[in-house]
Amino acid sequence: MSSNEFILETEGIYKSYRMGATEVRVLKGVDLAVKRGEFVAIVGASGSGKSTLLHILGALDKPDKGIVRFQGRDLSMQSAGELNRYRNKMVGFIFQFYHLLDELDVLENICLPAMASKSVLAWLACRRWAKGRAGQLLAELGLLERANHKPYQLSGGERQRVAIGRALMNEPKLLLADEPTGNLDSATGNGILEVFEKLNKAGQTIIMVTHDERVARMAGRIITLADGKIRNPA
Amino acid sequence: MYKVILATRYLLKRRITYFAVLAVALCVFIVVVVMTVMTGLVNDFKDKNHSFAGDCVVGTESLVGFPYYEDFISSLAGRDFVEAVSPAIKSYALLTVRLRDLNIVNIGVEIVGIDPIAHSRATGFAETLYYRKGDVSRAFVPSYDPNLLGCVLGIDIVMERDSRSEYPYEASPAEIAFSISCFPLTAKGALAKAGAGLVNTQTFYYSDASHSGLARVDGSTVYLQFEQAQLLCGMAGPVKRISAIHIKFKPDVKLQDGCEKVTSLWQNFKRQTAGREQADLLDTVTVQSWKDHRRAFIAAMEKEQTMLIVMFGFVGITTVFIVFVVFYMIISHKTKDIGILKSVGASNADIVGLFSGFASLVGLLGACIGLLGGWAFLLKINRIESWLFEHFGFQLWNRTIFAIGDIPNRVDAGVLLAIAASAIAACLLGALVPTWQAAASKPVETLRAAQL
After folding, report:
1. What is the ipTM of this complex?
2. Contact B349, B7 (CB under 8 A)
3. Shortest Cα distance from A66 to chain B (angstroms)?
4. A83, closest residue in chain B (CA to CA)
5. B60-70: per-residue pLDDT in tens?
6. Cβ pair A9, A16 in contact under 8 A
7. Domain boundaries, given as residue ranges, for chain B
8. Residue A218, Cα to own-chain centre: how many angstroms?
9. Which residues in chain A are closer than 8 Å to B342, comparing Cβ atoms?
10. SS3 category, A155
């Protein structure tokens, strides 16, 4: 299945959790391949393991069994430092609850991935570039006038756009979105989806988890996760 | 960079952090004040003992004394490390005074026979005098009759301090006669006047008072002219004896080096003197630095200081615990942040760095506030105590009893730095466990917990 056209591949991903005395098997052998520039929506019922799969793809979690390959490299073979760099440079996360840092303003939140990968001196050296990049993202996302606002001063849609800006800061090859519109009203959610569509048209690879079929239809391909497996494999 | 920004924001924006800062500041304040006062008392006490004894003392505890001191003093005099040398007679005596109301007061005293000029060069004797401070050569000359034999009395023998720790000196010393009686001893340690009244008695007149600041010295010491004391103690025979030689080293000579040189000279001197009459008395002589010579008195104070440091070690443990609790609470509320940071590539070390930096800031700010508060309080501590005494009759210690005047408030930069460093270390220690827990947490779990 491995080929250069696939940016991300998984083979036989298994994951289970322990809830008290019971072991809950969430993923039971997930095989998935995502091409560069593809917009994939993963749908499934609540508790079907969509978010778990997304976290594994983003190296926020580890599978019990199976392989995740990013650009042909097995993530399980990478060191902790390499996985940190993977999360920092290759992947951008967008969460349902935005997950912005309350203590930072909008501009700082967007700059966070750039700051995270640099020492104080390195940051000072590239600060101008980073702020320029963040400013460009703010402009694209229509948040320029909100740059110095704190997250609590923003609406839900604005917060999610800040989260998108943060995810795009380091120009990642893969955007992972976990129910990005799940906490937004329909109109605001549509605005976010329009941003995704625009990004995808510009060549951005996106994997989006959603339980909403209407949202999923915005993607180029829909994968359904049921009973821990992909029902309609690619 | 985000670590600096976030650590600063956590510090400024989280109200609970103020409690940690306050706890650290309070502990630092208490430690600074108590340590400064205690260290001041100990250092002051040491300085007074140093001034009293000189740098080095070659002496014996035996009341018989030791001979050939003049030879040894001559061998010391030309040495490049020796600044001054003073021989001294030390013994015990009965001091009798007949007061105007015809009551007779007898007290046991320690008599010290000295040459006031030589002794003032080797020790701080001149500085302890009141009337003859500027003319120490006349210390034993009563101003009311220069022909009389004078004596310098420990200040607490002749007067009592008032509640402000001040002695009621008169314009000139009162004309008071004292009889001083002591048992002269032979070189063998026998009573020299066996069968002839046993004691030597001589009348002396109050010429000055010595205030060394050492309660025991000021309450029981009478200084006499060297030759007079030698006669009284039976040490003025054909082979003259003394009790001690006080030595002051040149300013650039280290105490230990100087004492080692004196010890070496003394050993040589002993070898050269072996076989001479009464030379066996030299075996009782020791060479001691002023610290060792006054060890019995200093050790008690140092022990108190050590006890205090241990007690404040427990205060430090309390600070560590408070910081631990506060950080545990803060980090429990910051699990989402940890997940977010890890999702953008922060490593475990980065998380440790973030919260360690935060802990250091808490420690630094608390230490700065505590140090400033402590410094300001110490600056005014004597004024505050005076005000409390005037308005409420409160004093830290009764000045009519204790030999200490002002509350020591000289702040030692080294002590301050050590306290500040300890406060930061305590904060880091308190934050250690929560920080490691935060670093070890799985991002997925923290993000999931934040969603709930």
Report:
1. 0.89
2. no
3. 19
4. B345
5. 999 999 999 99
6. no
7. 2-47+298-451, 61-284
8. 16
9. 60, 84, 87
10. coil
